[in-house]
Design a protein that fits this description.
Two copies of one chain form a homodimer. Chain A has 459 residues and is α+β, with helices and mostly antiparallel strands. In chain A, 31% of the residues lie in helices and 25% in strands. In chain A, strands 6-10-11-16-15-14-13-12 form an eight-stranded mixed sheet. The longest helix of chain A is centred in the N-terminal third of the chain and has 23 residues.
């Protein structure tokens, strides 16, 4: 008999003989029969297995501990009156792998800290079963959105030798022996002896390479791991995370916002449709009202307003600010919160002061602001950041000169403006931030399988 | 009018007024009319735009050079007699971005070497338009196969501090200043001052972490970038590439082969169905017979044969070998070629000598071989490698002792055998190798957007 997965049973409940493999979550043994609650990881829901004295190894089964892996043959029985629509009446239960009494994941409440210290076992809990299933399905949703809209998925390189992107925030990589480094005449480490013949880093963004592909394929996206060296121990920082960076030719700031909104709604709907049990679980145990928050966003009108006008509203607000709103400054967390409540929904904040945004962003006709946009959403703050890119080579070169950015190393990038350049735009979305939004989880360490943070690189 | 993409036009040819943006590939201007061949990156096929004297900027359009970006408004006219099913009769043609005469990508044949030196512009050629489109669609096919079969996509970490995996082949990463390194009392570099408080690398595999997730979710896969420090300048080696590593609980070697075969056929069919023009192009200009090769594989019976029996066949062959086949050795390229021709199709070679395979592979009852399997396919050699894993903790520990593998750093991994362990299996597939197989491209540098190889880390 072919092994079935539990999700399939719940998807189309019917009486049938089946065979499955799973792990025991609990075992309630009584004198003449007993109940195993088992999970095979295909869905957060556990399946109830009923076993009785007729089984020759009844005594043995009665002693199966939490964590044991089992093979079960039996008959699916529909139970319309019960909490679950079906249960499995076992005709055979076999232990595949034992689990000792000291198994850390007992059927009780564990703290998130304890589970972080057992990151290799926490996927076996309901919470992380739900979180990592949602993460997986959300990743598929991202691919599905872009591919069905004709975007090219491009694997931009992670290793880079161009340090124009802020190498102080990048990890250095090397094949040299740290305790036997070669030095040049000036007493500096001689990277000409390294694998690439020069100093190399792992990059924090694929945007520049992404732009070169957008100039050939029109619409492209990246989706891959990203690294920052930030020595920051907060709930929202990790040194390794995943990022999505779409880039669209022939697309201006308004078009960019259309895409961001459509993509976000698509991903949320996809996850709600494909992970109903997992979303319900998070709604119940992680963030009360999660499901309403998500469906509200699906139906929300996204406000579009300039940074200037946002500061106007903030200054007029009858509110005591920790950080005084300023036309030349960034928007603080408290401001983001206020403005999403003010508009009762997601807000695109556009046209930011040029001095606080990146050099490649499109200078607006006012000469003071750039065509950048941050999307802030209720309860979570900034979810995406993007901009129209400066397609005018002269303006871009002047900006790079002003900021002392090395042009030689990225002359290839400037070719996108020399050869058939056009209006184009792109954005970046931190994937973990999206997962935190989708699950209600507040600490980034709990949405990454094996998080890397300062002083923390276990597993 | 909303901008349409050229692929849509070819997908459902009909007379309509449209607006599009694209890049000029060629311009054949005559006295009273002219033809622009334009491409917008949505499909390899170019669209013919007819323009004539009635346009007020006719003279200007006549001078548009290759590479210019344009916005075109006009009427789609069906041309059932012509090579292409439709053309666009322009009512308005506007230049968006000029392109100078020295544009390197002229409409003529360029060598692959020249295009590697212009990696940021090569996506604008037909060849790389096809190759990178196939790469993108194949990536989607991989996700689609695993997700539709209930697998969990897991982002295993790239940064690792466990050097059990062969740290000599891994890049070291650091945030320390190379020219001002801290040293400990013994005069060694003091990594306790580094971001993670110890020496760190970027890993070459997510398998071990993947196994921990398979023990919770049943079926999982990874798909992400991978790094090797190999100082090797061949057609098939790169220092950065992408890899897919599925891992399945309750799955033995036979089940593993079923999955490998099903997945490969699914991906190939998906690419043929979704990139017909691109596959045709590669068939015509890269590998004659490519399409037949791919459809043959779809219909092929995959042979399953042990390493021992393969060596038997090789030794009996009336053939002069460069490397003499040996029951204790690996299979050489020439042997792979012979054996796929012998069976006229793909071959799973199973049960390899334990000493030439990895420590975590399942020891067979003979005590000499492990339950490993390599899939070799006609014309491309090895495409995937996998194994059943050693689920018996005692056997595994002994193997680790014999090979002096540090157990302390990966005690978490051993927990998969302590707590509800089970028969499980997994494989790895180099994504670039798959793309080379799908396109006929012979050099790995030509299937990676920005390849990283020794002494080569541009862009």
């Amino acid at each position: 008999m072919q092994r079935v997965r539990i999700k399939k049973l719940f998807e189309s409940p019917k009486e049938q003989e089946i065979f499955l493999c799973a792990w025991v979550r609990t075992n309630r043994a009584q004198a003449q029969f007993g109940f195993l609650s088992v999970n095979d990881g295909s869905i957060i829901t556990n399946l109830q297995v009923v076993y009785d004295q007729k089984l020759e190894n009844f005594e043995e089964i009665s002693k199966f501990r939490t964590g044991v892996s089992v093979a079960v043959t039996g008959k699916v029985v529909l139970t319309p009156e019960a909490k679950q629509p079906l249960e499995l009446h076992a005709t055979k239960v076999e232990m595949l792998g034992d689990c000792p009494e000291d198994y850390p994941i007992q059927p009780k409440r564990h703290t998130r800290e304890f589970l972080r210290d057992n990151a290799h076992l926490r996927p076996r809990t309901n919470l992380f079963n739900a979180v990592f299933r949602i993460r997986s399905v959300a990743a598929m949703a991202v691919h599905s959105y872009f591919q069905s809209n004709g975007y090219l998925y491009v694997h931009t390189p992670l290793i880079t030798c161009a340090d124009c992107e802020g190498s102080d925030q990048m990890f250095k990589i090397t094949t040299l022996d740290f305790n036997n480094l070669p030095y040049d005449e000036d007493g500096k480490v001689d990277f000409s002896k390294d694998l690439f013949g020069k100093q190399a880093w792992i990059t924090g963004s694929g945007q520049l390479q992404g732009e070169t592909f957008a100039m050939a394929f029109g619409d492209i996206y990246t989706f891959g791991p990203t690294f920052r060296t930030e020595n920051s121990n907060t709930q929202t920082h990790a040194n390794e995370f995943w990022m999505i960076e779409p880039e669209m030719a022939f697309c201006d700031l308004e078009g960019l916002m259309d895409i961001e909104e459509e993509m976000l709604k698509y991903v949320i709907k996809y996850v709600i449709d494909n992970c109903p049990a997992e979303i319900d679980f998070c709604d119940q145990f992680v963030e009360k009202g999660l499901k309403t928050k998500l469906t509200d966003l699906l139906n929300a009108k996204f406000t579009r307003i300039s940074h200037h006008d946002v500061v106007d509203i903030l200054l007029k607000a009858n509110q005591k600010w920790e950080f005084t709103p300023n036309y030349n400054d960034d928007i603080a967390k408290e401001h983001e919160r206020y403005i999403t409540e003010y508009f009762n929904g997601p807000v695109f904040i556009t046209n930011w002061p040029k001095d606080i945004k990146a050099w490649y962003m499109k200078l607006n006709p006012d000469g003071k602001t750039v065509a950048a946009v941050d999307l802030v959403v209720p309860k979570a703050g900034e979810l995406m950041g993007g901009s129209q890119r400066e397609e005018n080579l002269d303006v871009l070169l002047k900006k790079m000169d002003d900021l002392h950015i090395d042009k030689e190393g990225i002359d290839w990038y400037l070719d996108t403006r020399r050869y058939g350049g056009c209006v184009h735009s792109g954005f970046g979305m931190g994937f973990e931030r999206l997962i935190m939004y989708l699950t209600g989880i507040e600490n980034i360490r709990d949405v990454i399988p094996y998080p890397r943070t300062p002083k923390n690189c276990e597993y």
